[in-house]
Structure formats: C-alpha cells, structure tokens
Amino acid sequence: MFKLKGVFQNRKNSLSPPLGEKKGFWQNNKYIILSFIIPFAIISLAFGFYNITPFGIIRNMVKWVVYGIGQLFPWLGITVIPDTVYPFGDKQILVVDAWHQYYPFLYDLHEKLQGGGSLFWTWSVGLGADFIALGSYYLFSPLNLLSVFVPDGALVSYLAFITAVKMAASGMFTAICLKIIFKKNDYSLVLFSILFALCSYNLGYYWCVMWLDSVAMLPLVVAGTVCLIRDGKVKLFTISLALAVIFNYYIGFFICVAVFLTAVGYVIINWRGLKAAIGAVIKTAVCSVTALFMTAFVTIPAYMGLQNCYKYSSGITAGLDINHGENTITGLLGAVLKVLSNALSFNAPTYLEGLPNIACGVLCIILLGVFFFSKKIKLSEKLFCSITLTFLAAGFIFRQLDYVLHAFHFPNMLPHRYSFISCFLLIYMAFRAFSVMEEAKFYHILLGGGAFAVLAVLYILRPKEDFSLIAVCGSAAVALAVIVILSLAHFKIMPKRVMAALLCLVVLGEVGVSSLIAVKTVEYSSVKGYTKHSDDVSAVLGRVNDTAENEFFRTEKAYMLTHNDGALNGYNGVSTFSSMVNVNTSKYAIYFGAGGNAGSNIFSYYESSPVTNLMFNLKYLIDVDGQIRNTDYLTEVAKSGDVTLYENTAYVPLGFMTGSDVINCDSVSTSSTKISYGNPFENQINWFRAATGIETSVYNKIEVESVDCSAETVEIKELKQDIYSLKVKTDKTDKDQELYTEYNYTVEEDCSVYVVFRATVEHEENISITVNGNKDDATFTTNGTVKSVGELKAGDKLSIRTDYKKEGSGKFRVCCYSLNKEVFDEGVEILRKSVLKTTTVTDTAIKGAVTAEKDGLLYTSFPYQAGWRAKVDGKEADITVLGGSMIGLELTAGEHEIEIYYVPISFLMGFGISAIGLAVFMVLVALASKKILFKKIEPITEDQIS
User: Fold this and answer.
1) Among residues 330, 520, 568, 614, which one has the fewest Cβ atoms lying within 10 Å of its Cβ?
2) How far apart are CA 910 and CA 916, in angstroms?
3) What gap in Å lies between CA 262 and CA 391, rounded to an integer?
C-alpha cells in the first residue's frame, strides 16, 4: 500500500520478461488471473470440505468417483453413497447477521429487481424503511445486482459463490496494485496476492459479505493514489475510491483513511520539496472530493438515514483505557502481547469478539528482516511503514484511538474493523523486501526468523484459553520452511524457479489450512433448517396475495425464523434487525408491545394481543409449528403442512379516524434502556382510550400472587410496581443446582391473558410459562414483547419462571394482564366507522378516500421520515407525526381524497451532487490527458536510492 518508488531488478536470473517486451494477453496478465483463480479455488475447497452449498458439489463429485470405484470393484467393500437430495451441499454460510440480515435483505432486493419494485422504500422491513439507506450498508455490491438473473431457489448458493468471488477479487486487485506500483510481472504477484485474499481479516469476517467488496477495492485505491501522485493519472484513483464508498459506505471510511496514509507515505518517501508535496496534497484532495461527490447518490441517503438511527452516547474516556486488558501497565503489556502474537498463522480468526485479525502469512514476518535492514530500501520508507503499523496497532490497544478509527463510535462486536489495512501494509512491506532479495544478506533472513521467534514466544506467553498448539507449531513449521528455502536460494544452492515453486507450495498449504480453520470457526447453518416451512409459508401467502389488490395491510409470523422474515418471505412485516433502523420507529414499536431494544437496532413481533395487531395494521398471522395460543380474533383461512394462515377478524384498515389526543401518546422521549420503555400494557391502554374516546381500560391487570426464588443463590427485591431488582450470587456449577425466580398469578375469571417480561439481566438460561403446572412450549422471551398466554379459566394458576446460569445483577419488569373484550370490541366498531379505503397501493404511494364523521386525526401505521408527503383533496397537507413516529393527518368532518407518497429527497439531492462530481471528473480526465493540470513526475533513478 504505501509505496512507493520504482523497484529496480537485477535482470540476471529474473523470472520476469524484459520490460517493454511484446507479450500476448495471457503473458501480460497470467499472474493477475492466477491471483484470482488460486484463492477462489482454495476457499471453494474449504467451503466444499464442510459441504457448504454450492461448493459441496466438489465433495459430492469425490463421492461419485469413490462410489463408481465401489460399483466396479465390489470386493473393496466401499459403501460411500453420493448425496442426491443436496448434491451441492446441505450447509450454507448464513450465520449470525448473515442469517438475520444480509440474506433477507438480498432476497428483498432480488424480488424488487425481478418484480420491478421501488428501490427507494420497502414495506417488508420494520413497518417500512428507506431502501436506499438500507442498501448503502448492505446491498450495493454489483454482484448483488446480478442476482436478478438467479432463480429464488439458488440465491443462497449464489451468495456463497459471490463471497468466494469477492475474496478472490482481493487477490486479483492486489496483483494489479503491485504490478502498477512496482512495474513487475512475475510469480511474486501471485505469492503475495494470495496472502491478502486469504488473510485472517477476510477469513474471519467473510460472513459479513457486504464488506468484502470495499475491502477488495483497497489495493486498487492504493495503486490509484500512487498513479495520481506519481504519474498524474486520475481515472484509477477517482473511480476506485468512488466504487469503494458506493459498495459500502462504512468500509469506505476506512478506505479514505488508507488514502490519506498512502498519500502521506508517498510524499515522505519520495520527498521532492515542499512545492511538490503541496501539489500532491492538492491532487489527492481534489480527486478525493470529486470521487466522494460521485458517490453522493448513495452517501447522502446513508447520511440522512444515519441521522434517524440510534446514537450510542458513550464516547472516549480520559486516562488509560485498554482493549484486551485491564487499565493498568500490566494490562497494557498483556494487550500488546496478545495483539502482536495474533500475527501468527493457524489461529482461529475473530468472527464475533476477540483480537484483531492481522495474520497474513508467516512469509511476511520473515521478510521483515530484509525490509528493515536492506540498504536498497530507503530509511524514510522504513520509518513511515513502522510508524503507520505502530499507529494502527495502537488503535487495536487503546480504546480512544480505536473509537476515532471506527468513525467515532464503538462497534457492537466484530472489533477492529479497519485491521485489513494492517494486513495490506504488512504484505506491501514483504513484497518490497522480496523485490530486493538479490541484494539481501543472509543475516537479514536470520533477523526475520528472530522476529518470528519473538512473536512465537509472545504467543506462548498468552493466557491458556487463548493458546493454540496448532497455531504456534504450525507457524513454526512454516517459518522454518521459508527460512530454509530463502537461505538455499540466497547461497545459490537452489535455482530461483525451484525457490518460487516451493514458496508457493508453502504459502498454498498455509492459507489452505487457515481457510479450513476459519470456516470451522465461523461455522455454518443447515440448508434444511433455513428453508424449513418455506414452501408451506409461500403456499399460504399465496392466499394473502390473491386478496391483496389495492389494499395495504401487514402480515407477521407468530414465531420468526429470522428478524427480517418480512424481507425473506416477501410480505409487509413488523419485525426488523438492521444497522439502519429508524430509532423513532423502533421506540414506537417497542413502546407499544414489540420486543426489542432501540440500542440494539432490533424490534420483533411474536404472537401478541389484538390491540397490538390493531395498531400495527396486522391482518394476517402465520402460525408455524403451533406457536399461536389465542385464536379469539383469528380465523383460519389457509393451511399447508405445519403452517397455518390466520386472518385477524378485528382488523381495521391502514388508516382510521381517531381522537386528537393520540398525538400525546409519545414514545420518542423514551429512554433506550430495557426497563425505561414503560409498561406496554399501560401504553396501549392510554393509546386505545385516546383513539376511541372510551374511558374504560381495554386491559385488566392481574396482580402477582407471590414471587419465589432460590433463596440461597438469588436475591430479589421489588423496587416499585412490576419492577424488581435481581442479584444472582453464584454461577451454576451442576445441573441439579437451582438459580431461579418465579412469579405466580391466579386468574379470577375466564379471560384471554397476556404477559410482558423485560430484563436487563443477560444470564438467563431458560424462561418458561406454566399453566396449572403444565409447561408451555411456545417461544417466550425477555425482550419486552406483549405475549399471548391463551384463554385461561377462573382459578387457573399461571407461573413465569426464569432460570439463570451465571452470576449477575440487573432489573426487570414482569406483569400480567387480561383483555377486556367488551371494551375492545366497542373500540374496534368505533374505529371502523371512518377508515381509509385504498384505491392505489405501491411501494412509495398510497391513495384512497375516507369519510370523517367529525374533525379528528387520520391515524396510519406508516413510519414517518423526511420525504413522506401528503395531499388531502388534491392539496398539499401537513403531516402530523403521531406517537413520535407514525404519519397522521388532521382532517375536518366530511369526505376526503387522501394521497400519501414518498419523495426520496436525499437521493435526489445526492443524485444532483453525483452529477456534478461526474462532470468534474470528466473535466479532470480531459485536463490530465492534455498534461494541463496533473503532470507526470519523473521517477527516482536507481542511483538516488540509498
């Protein structure tokens, strides 16, 4: 990355053809092509080894060969049988957020591309979401756009395929970068490019598919920076930087940091005076701004979307604040030890929480001796690379710098997301050293071996739980092999071509084993588990789609497979889990009974109450595996397998007239802490009273009869009504030990019962509901969702029990209510008198008519954000934001034509800025081609190298 001057080869014994020699396409590009093919083959084999689709076909082909041999020679007793049910593999890469977010969002994009839906807004995610903002973080890989040609059933396999493609592209672009910077075209391009493609960063975070495109662009951006400053060429830099930011604005921020470091490094290493330095800064700044202008059609919506997201308030602290250790000098030394030693190969990479992923091959460590002690490399280059590496390492250790490098926030899991820059810098330094091996001394190689020995000792000193014998022994074996090969070549005992072949074999073996370790560490999921009930769900949703013309309503599952099942199954959903979720929508949903926490960017619907369904415009509920407990207001309308579709008989259309007091049911001021959302039953009572004008409560509270706990191990105290403090005094040591709390209720009359449990204690082992001693197997959570228990009889005993497994303390709210059906029925009839009858429904517009019996508010469950507009009787009307989130309109009595439509203001603004950026770019290209603006700087000659 940080080059950056010409490298002058001793042509004798070189494997590179003479510069300027005429070559065909293959000869000119074969090493670049191999830099893609080889890492693609390695990661494909690793995926295939674990039977991950579609690469499981590799494993199955081997089975077919073995099976064929067994059929030809029965006496061998071969019993291998090929898989004909899942010939491409029965596992998939969908884990963690890839399971809950990336794939469902990709599926939503896929459906929009194939069906012609709007890319500005989606109703499938969290009551409604800005799709451009969502896409800026998750979806704008060009390979995702090609999914338009992929059948639905192959989309999971396609996602794994493009993951391998993106990792391989990192290698190919690295080869291009090294070729441009060093003007070299030999096997070494492949050798070092593989190390970046399959570095521990890519191997640990490959399941974050949306990051890989921008990470792959880093080498091209670096090469572009050098071309811009050295050669006065603007195309590669401007285009590659723009694409890196468009593909993923978040990783794009780190790419911009790399641009700054590269430009500074080039100027320092190739110092030509203050005038030249200022010129380089101006060139880089002008082209960077131009590139960022070109990205505005994505980045402006992303920026506007981020203003609506939850903002973590905790910033940097004063004093010593250490990652990976205590805030002491001893803790600091321990953190340094852990971070540096993590450069060894064969470690299980960090994929959720842990140390920075900086391992990029033992060869890179061994060559540090040559880099730092060779006289062919300038002192300024050595100093700059050392300082930059130290700066990045300090970010891994000191939380204050880590905070700044993460764009001024602390990430939730996946630490040190910028560590791929360190990997690339180490690979650059190694390649730089390898290019001067002709003049290297033998002791340089030994010093590199000494550097490895130091890291190995540091690794051995790591805590026992962080130690891996495979890592230290495997890395030592690779180090010994590299040292022996380089030494034999140095003393001319081994021909260069043999050295090249052996080094390639060592590196291939190293990254191959590392890939297997990484895939095992990251793990995988079952294809069958993810697609369970998918055909049945699609079948019952066909019944919904048949009745959906010109009507907007929502559908949800009683229990979700992912947190974005709406996007995954193609219905207008409530639940979501997304880094771009609107915090006001999140607070509103949670405040009124969805489970979740705004600080975690998540809210979820489980089978809830009829009031919740009314507020969220829920018309259909999908029951999977018998999760539904109350069908009072649900009628079965379709069934397929274990999946049943219910229609809400208390459904009220999208918009309906309410009392003006609804505007005061505000959720935005709610704290994001788990307890401070308030009691969702009381929140719904207040909303229902304001909406209908009925003073009688729609719920009746069921008082807790007793609270029990394991007295010796758990301490519980009621702070105020329904809120308790809890202290678990010890960890669970055996299966018979009890650490629990239990809340007991007695139902006094026949009724539909609903409960809420919201906790800040994060050590629950199990939470369950029992009725008259019979445990309910329905899913129950501690995230504050209003959850149906079902129809209970007078005298029934209800218990909510929580078992714990670890020591800890916190607060929680637990409460139990019954629905006042008479009040609810009366309220529904009131709200049904004046409803919005829709005539046109699209992704970005709703049109219809409403007859208001009196002046009041038209309530809708559309979440508001800038860009939504409304017309009443053809005239622009002001939108009233209800509950801090939903769109409402103040109407007078009488008939009204209503139009609510979305104008993507941020996209239009960004598109205009992008057009300006593109125009400026074309002017820069024209001026640069005529040598008017950016002139080529003559390269430093060989006698200038110190």
Assistant:
1) 330
2) 10
3) 14
Tokens for 920, please give them: 């400026």
CA distance 940 to 210: 40
Sorted by sequence, the CB contacts under 8 Å of residue 6 that are 6+ apart come out as 182, 183, 939, 940
Q: Residue 247: which of 221, 229, 224, 225 has the closest Cα?
A: 221
Residue 682: which residues within 8 A CB-CB, separation 6 or more?
Answer: none
Helices (H), 75-154: 96-97, 103-115, 131-138, 142-145
Half-sphere exposure of 514 (CA within 13 A, CB side): 36
Alpha helices (runs of H) in 317-398, residue ranges in sequence order: 329-341, 362-366, 368-373, 379-397
**Closest of 783, 785, 751, 787 to residue 769, by C-alpha:** 787
Omega of the bond leading into 54 within 30 degrees of 0 (cis):
yes
pLDDT at 22: 60
DSSP 783-806: B---EEEEEE-TT-EEEEEEEE-S
Per-residue exposure over 627-637, b if at least 16 CB sit within 10 Å of its own CB, e if not: bbbbbebbeee
Residue 301 near residue 907 (C-beta atoms within 8 A): yes
- Helix, strand or coil for residue 723? strand
Pairing of strands 808-819, 880-882: unpaired
Summarised one tens digit per residue, pLDDT across range 789-803 is 999 999 999 999 888
751-759 and 787-792: which strand pairing?
antiparallel
Average pLDDT over the chain, rounded to whole? 90
- pLDDT band at residue 13 under the 50/70/90 scheme: very low
Alpha-carbon span 674 to 597, nearest angstrom: 6
- The sign of the torsion formed by the CA atoms of 912, 917, 920, 921 equals negative
pLDDT in tens, 413-470: 899 999 999 999 999 999 999 999 988 999 999 999 999 999 999 999 988 878 899 9
Question: In this structure, what is the dihedral angle of CA atoms 170, 172, 175, 177, given to the nearest 10 degrees?
Answer: -60
Question: Which candidate, 501, 450, 514, places its Cα nearest to that of 479?
Answer: 450
Output b/e per residue, 73-87; b: 16+ Cβ within 10 A. eeeeeeeeeebeebb
In DSSP terms, 702 is beta-bridged to 816
- Whose tokens are 């399941």? That residue is 207
Angle at 833 between CA 829 and CA 839, to 5 degrees: 125
Distance CA 166, CA 217 (A): 10
The token duo for 61 is 């082909």
Distances (CA, A) of 489 to 9, 148, 486: 16, 51, 5
Distance (Å, whole) CA 325 – CA 101: 32
Cα distances (Å, whole numbers) of residue 361 to 474, 507, 771, 776: 11, 7, 59, 53
- Reply yes or no on whether the pLDDT at 943 is more than 50: no
The token pair at 526 is: 């079952």
817, containing H or E segment: strand 808-819
Q: Is 742 helix (H, G, I), strand (E, B) or coil?
A: strand
Greatest CA span in the chain, whole angstroms? 98
Task: Tell me what the mean pLDDT of segment 510-517 comes to.
Answer: 97
Does 912 have pLDDT greater than 60?
yes
Q: What is the pLDDT of residue 312?
A: 64
Helix (H, G, I), strand (E, B) or coil at 706: strand
Structure tokens belonging to residue 637: 């309308």
Query: In angstroms, rounded to a whole number, what is the distance separating the alpha carbons of residues 523 and 646?
Result: 36
Measure CA 231 to chain center: 37
Q: How far is CA 354 from the centre of its chain?
A: 17
Rounded mean pLDDT, 758-762: 75
| Identity at 640, one-letter amino acid code | S
CA 709 from centre of chain: 39
